[in-house]
């Protein structure tokens, strides 16, 4: 089968032939990939940012946002069968450790992360586990939902955590209306009554944000912190969801956060520098976010199949994976890029 393989850091992957994966254990599932999301994390992988954390030997197959159809299932698999349409939680988990037992399965002590720690889904087939499979309506096109597997639940997970803080009369700032942010905006609109203010460099992204439920848009032109303060009578926002968190956005995000408010870091790549006095004197909170739980993904798919969360996508054939990565890096993708094998 064809797969998108990374042979070295700081160089683009190549599309080459590799052996198809097969079921090895009783709970294994092999999925025929119908859509694989292209994520900024893939660019960070190419840059070597995950090399030490994951320690994977090169070459390996990229792709951690995947949906498709069950091709083969292990002998003990009962919840899905061949032909079922599925979206895959990005981290197949053990179900036995404390994190899994308390519903924090993205922190599983014995999980894998296809596309980061082992071969991923930018290929014709992907090996995963039954615990990662969320069964979908058979009419669902995998290419339409694949990016919800990681970008979607990352955004949903952050919004879900912030819901108790977002009662009517509050303001939530969303930094970045791109691949993650445009999903977060829809989740906020579907689940809260907060006022949604979106900050982005691109006026077209702000137009899309308003179509998706944002109440106000702020162009990131150097005055964005002041503009948010003006919109909130000088207070700042009760919650800031930062889907960028690099190139200065991470400093803006904390500055936009009101006293006793919470700054959620979802994107990554930058460095937050805050005097500790500024944290304690204002009781502002910094909250980290990494993907989401299996239940987060299942709940998000309910919203998606009800039409309350939709992905704005641009599709590419698997052979054009490098083009998709370059378009994403250059800011030419509005929403999500999806590879279709």
Automatic annotation (TrEMBL):
It holds the Pfam family ADH_zinc_N. Transmembrane segments: none annotated. PROSITE patterns: ADH_ZINC (PS00059). InterPro entries: ADH-like_C (IPR013149), ADH-like_N (IPR013154), ADH_Zn_CS (IPR002328), ER (IPR020843), GroES-like_sf (IPR011032), NAD(P)-bd_dom_sf (IPR036291), Zn_alcohol_dh (IPR050129). GO terms for molecular function: oxidoreductase activity; zinc ion binding. It comes from the Bacteria. Residues 8-339 form the Enoyl reductase (ER) domain. Belongs to the zinc-containing alcohol dehydrogenase family. This is NAD+-dependent secondary alcohol dehydrogenase Adh1.
């Amino acid at each position: 089968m064809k797969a998108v393989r990374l042979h070295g850091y700081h160089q683009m992957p190549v599309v080459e032939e590799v052996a198809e994966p097969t079921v090895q254990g009783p709970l294994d599932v092999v999925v025929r990939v119908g859509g694989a999301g292209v994520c900024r994390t893939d660019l960070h992988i190419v840059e070597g940012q995950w090399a030490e954390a994951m320690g994977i030997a090169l070459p390996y197959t990229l792709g951690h946002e995947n949906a498709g159809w069950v091709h083969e299932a292990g002998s003990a698999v009962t919840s899905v069968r061949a032909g079922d349409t599925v979206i895959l939680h990005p981290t197949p988990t053990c179900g036995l450790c404390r994190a899994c037992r308390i519903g924090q399965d993205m922190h599983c002590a014995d999980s894998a992360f296809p596309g980061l720690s082992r071969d991923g889904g930018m290929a014709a087939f992907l090996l995963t586990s039954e615990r990662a499979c969320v069964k979908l309506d058979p009419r669902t096109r995998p290419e339409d939902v694949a990016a919800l597997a990681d970008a979607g639940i990352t955004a949903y997970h952050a919004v879900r955590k912030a819901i108790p803080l977002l009662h009517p009369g509050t303001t939530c700032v969303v930094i970045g209306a791109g691949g993650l942010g445009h999903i977060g905006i829809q989740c906020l609109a579907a689940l809260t009554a907060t006022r949604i203010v979106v900050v982005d460099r691109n006026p077209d992204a702000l137009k899309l944000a308003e179509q998706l439920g944002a109440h106000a848009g702020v162009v990131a032109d150097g005055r964005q912190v002041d503009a948010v303060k003006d919109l909130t009578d000088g207070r700042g926002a009760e919650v800031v969801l930062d889907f960028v968190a690099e190139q200065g956005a991470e400093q803006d995000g904390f500055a936009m956060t009101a006293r006793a408010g919470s700054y959620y870091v979802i994107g990554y790549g930058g460095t937050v520098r805050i005097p500790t006095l500024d944290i304690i004197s204002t009781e502002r909170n910094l909250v980290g976010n990494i993907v989401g739980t299996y239940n987060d993904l299942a709940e998000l798919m309910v919203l998606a199949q009800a039409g309350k969360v939709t992905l704005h996508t641009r599709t590419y054939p698997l052979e054009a994976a490098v083009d998709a990565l370059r378009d994403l890096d250059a800011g030419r993708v509005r929403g999500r890029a999806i590879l279709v094998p």
